[in-house]
Structure formats: C-alpha cells, structure tokens
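S1.2 Input.
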Amino acid sequence: MARRLTLILSGAALLALAVWLGLTTLVDRTPVPNLQVPTSTLVLDRDGRLLRPFTVERGRWRLPVDLAAVDPRFIKLLLAVEDRRFCIHHGVDPLALVRAAAQLATRGHIVSGGSTLTMQLARLIDGGGTRSAGGKVRQALAALALERSADKAQILAAYLTVAPYGGNLEGLRAGSLAWFGKEPKHLTTAEAAFLVALPQAPEARRPDRDPAAARRARDRVLGRALALGLIDAEAAAAARREPVPTGRRPFPMLAPHLGTRLALAFPGRAVHRTTLDAGLQGRLETLAAERAAAIDPRVSVAILAADHGSGEVLATVGSAGLFDGDRQGHVDMTRALRSPGSTLKPLIYGLAFESGIAHPESLIEDRPTAFAGYVPGNFDRSFQGTVTVRRALALSLNVPAVQLLDAVGPARLLARMRRAGAVPLLAEGAPPSLAIGLGGLGLSLFDLVRIYGAIARGGQSLDLHETLDGPAAAGPGRRVLDARAAWYLTSILSEVPAPNDAAPRGISYKTGTSYGYRDAWAIGYDGRRVVGVWVGRPDGAPVPGLKGVDMAVPILLDAFTRLGPRSPLPSAPAGVLMAATNALPPTLRHARVRDAGVGAAPAGPEIAFPPDGARLEVGFNQAAGPGATLALKVRNGYPPFTWFADDRPIGQEPFARTIEWQPVGPGYAAISVVDGRGRSSRVRVYLR
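S1.3 Output.
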C-alpha cells in the first residue's frame, strides 16, 4: 500500500513537473507584449500642466499615465473590483479562473471573466478576442510572459494608458479629461468609480449615449467599494447623488500655434516643455477673443508676453480663435511680418541720445519738412512747432523722428534692430531709407517684443525662448543701446498718456498704426515683463478707424492687469543728465539735426501779434486804473524767447511762443523779441 501511494505521488509529481516544464516552454516561446505603445504628443507649460495633446494613429486620444499623478482612491477601487490579487499573482489568478468557471457552470452564463489586469493588458495590446478558449489561453501565456519582463507598476501604468474609455478615448488620463475636464489626480469618489466601470463595456456604458447605464455601472462599483470597506455608507450615498457626465469635454487647446510649431519642428519628441504659464495663457486667449469680437468679425488679435529678465515667453496668443475662419485664426500673427508703424521711434530716439545728437529736453522743430523729396506728415495732419524731444516722442510726432533718423542714419537703425535679434524685411534689393522709421519695412510682433525687451533691460538684447528643452540661456546679451539712452526712453514712455484717462501706472509703452489702418500696435513693459499687442486683419485689408491708441492700448493695459502685480521700472543709471533745456550744455539745447523744409522758417523770429503800426485799445481812455493785458505772440525762430518793451525786459518763455504783457501807460511802445539763437524782431504800436 505504501509503495502504491509512493508511485501515485511520484507520478503526480512527474506530471506536475511535465506540466510546469511544458507551460514554462510555452511561456518562453510566447512573444512578450510591447508596453511601449505610441502615446499622444504632449505640450506642457512651465509647471508641467497640459497645454494641448495631439492624437495618435486613427485620431485616438491616448495620453501617457504616471501612477504618481493618479488619485490613490481610483487605484484602490480598480484593484478591488477588477483584480484583488494583482499584487501577488504572476499574471494569471487561478482562484479567479475557478470562480469564473463555477459561475458559468451554475448560472449558465459568464458572470465574471476571471481575467487579471495583466491578461486584459495583453489583450488590449495584442488586439485578439477574449471569448474563445484559445483566446483565453493566448492571453494567459502573454500575461505570464509579461510578468516576467515588467514589474507591477509598469504593468498597471501600461493598462491605464491603453484601457478603453469610449469612442476614440484610450487611457485613464484621456477618459478623465474628456468626461470630467480634470486630471486623474483630482477625481472624486463618484468620478473614480465611473472611470473604473467604463472600460469593461466602454460603448454600452458611454454616458453621452446611455447615462442610465453609466449610472448603474458606477453605482455597482460604489456598492462593491462599500462592501469591501473602502468607503463608508455616508460617502457611498453622497457619491451616488453626484450626476454622471452627459457629454464629452474638449481637450485643452492652449497656445495651439506654438504647439503645432513645436510638433512639426521636433516630430520625434513625445513631450514639449514650454516656458508658458497655462493660467496666464488662458486668460490672454480669452482677452484676445473678447476684444476681437467687439471690434469686427474679420479682425484678429495677437498678444505676446515675456519675462525680459530671463527671456522666457510667458504667453503667446497667435490669433483670436484657432478655428475662426473669418478671422483666419490658423495664422500665427505673433510671427507674421507686418508694418510696425511708429513703434520703431523709441529706437530712433535712443540712437540719438546715445550719439549725443539730442537729449530728452533738447528742442526740435515739428513743422513741414522735406528730405530729398520725402515729406513726412503727422497722423493728425497738424504740426506742433518747437517742442522738446521728450514731447515729440510722447506725442509720436513724425517729422522730429525722421529728422533724428536722418541724423543717425537708417542703416544704423537697421543694424541695431538686427542686434536686438529682430529680422526686419525690406523690399528686395532696396537700401534702408528714412521711410523705415515710420513703418516702411516688415517686422513681427515677436521682433518688436525683443526690441522693447532690450530697452527694458537697459539696452541689452533679449533672447526670447519658448521651450525648456533647448540649451541653457546665454550670458549677457548684445549691446543694443547705451544704458543711459535706454533709461531716457523708459522715462519718456512711462509718461505717455493713456486713452480715456486710464493711466498705465508703472508701464512704459508705445503705440503704432500702419499706413491705411491695417495694423494697430501697443508694446509696453514694466520692471519685469514686456507685452506686445497687435490688432488687425491677417489678410492685410484696411480696417477703418483702426488705431493703436484706441484698439491696442486697452488690450495692453488689460493684459498687464491679468499678469498680476506690476514690477517697478528701473531707476536711473549713473551718468544720466537731469536738466531743463536752459540748463543743458549749449550743444544739447537744440537737437543737432540739419535744417530742411517746405516753407522753412525765416532767418529769425517774427512777432505775429501785435502787427507793426497797430493802434490798440487797452483801456487807458476809461476810468483810472491799469489797462488790459496784451498777449504777445511770436512765430518762427527758436526758443527760448526773451521779450522787451521800450528796451526793458518783459520776461522769458523757455518754450511758449506767447507771453502776457501789461502796458504801464498810453502812447507809443516798441516791442521786441530775441530768440535762442540771438535773432530778433521788433514792432512799434500805439496804445490808448
């Protein structure tokens, strides 16, 4: 008897060994499923937040899943419902298979399939059937092979990447974003239960098709969690009260132009890490869409914001709506070449300051002037006469800007633009002319932000970058302007009045409007950020009434508000000359530009009022007392103007061409004026 028992046990052992050897051989010969499935290319912001994903083959959304970024409650629910012994089995759970077979034998239909998560993963990767015996065997062998080559965390992460969530959704992250609009790290208990239930019948339980079926499946998972003690009765009841989603939400689509550009430039890269701030990007995209809608159905808006200390682009809005065909929203207007209008004037003035041609308080003439046949005029078709350089830039006067450009040279302006990193476009073969100072060339919003960023950082060039994947930032930039010249510009531009008395406190900015009302610009900066705004039609058609001060400046100011607290503008560097016009060195009291004109000023000043020989009623024939005051006026000449009556000084006006004088008595009086260059005019009048 003992010998027979021994033989039976030996036979059983040999049979078990043979089965084990055979199974091992089958597992060894079974190809290991490849866990490296293609996943959606991702574009992330500076903090790793999703800006936009791209689909994989056949238009499927399959986002990679990091277990550390998944709510732990979801993991507990998934394992409790789908594979309680996941952490201890080797790919196949014999107990689950026995339970499934018993249920089939006693109930006549499949109640639970007995498949482990590893077996389900093998099926999802292989794409084979699950209902036939052969399919189950292939699944089991693939699962056993898979468990030999990967650890549990890798298997679970792979399952959560390819599990079906209805339609073209694959993976937990895609399902969580599409059905709840949130990352899987922030799921509620009800949401986690829904996402556990959905993959088992992703089409039958889709809430956009059958919300009742989706709710029943979710509630069954909640009941299972309650039975296992994962949640208490109160939490289960609260979760059941939550509604199920009834439709899909759109995937994030922030900074779409940048994302497309990166995907095309680096087709093999799975993740693009940008310098953008997702929250700011969303706020500025909303701003662009709202303002464009209020202007014209065909007008678009572009906004670019950057940190001018680091060169990191914080937000880039290429259009007012990617899919807006009327606005040609697919065109990235941060990179399109357009006429910059008057936005280059600060760089012209900066070169004049740097060269000693002018100082902010130098005087310059704003009057009809010709430059070898080129006759610029001001936007409002009027002229201011003699003004300070500071006022000429603040008012964006054209003639003084062209006079200064004539003095510094258009080629030098072009060279400094390029030194700032801009890529200006001139007509093919055309040399730079004075017209480039008023917008006669092509520049992009990206170029202008680099130029103004250089001014903001004391004249050092600004190397803008949009990704964190490139080489480390370079050292000190190229010198675009002298530090003192850059500060003079910051000082002047911080005093530019804003429309509707909306004072842009703490911002230096400049506007621009291109010829024919085709482009409206506003570029500004504080002590940390530089922002550029473009408004117009991408097709270049004119928009009546489109002006930078009216259309672009309000958007610029609103953009700075959405950026958060402003950083103070820099203080004056060493060597800055702070002085009024009369206190400047003689060579700086007037900008050193050449005289040229259409109807140019005569050789000296001319008293405009009173005219020579006039007889004036000032009240001396009435009751005793002082007579009325007279407003003496001068035209032409150069300030300051010193006035005399009967060779006695009346007073001096540093800039104004009018002075109030009160005569001392009736009779003849000689009135004379001497300008800043020593030239004079004299009239003789009779007072009564």
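S1.4 Remarks. Residues 2-29 form the longest helix (28 residues).
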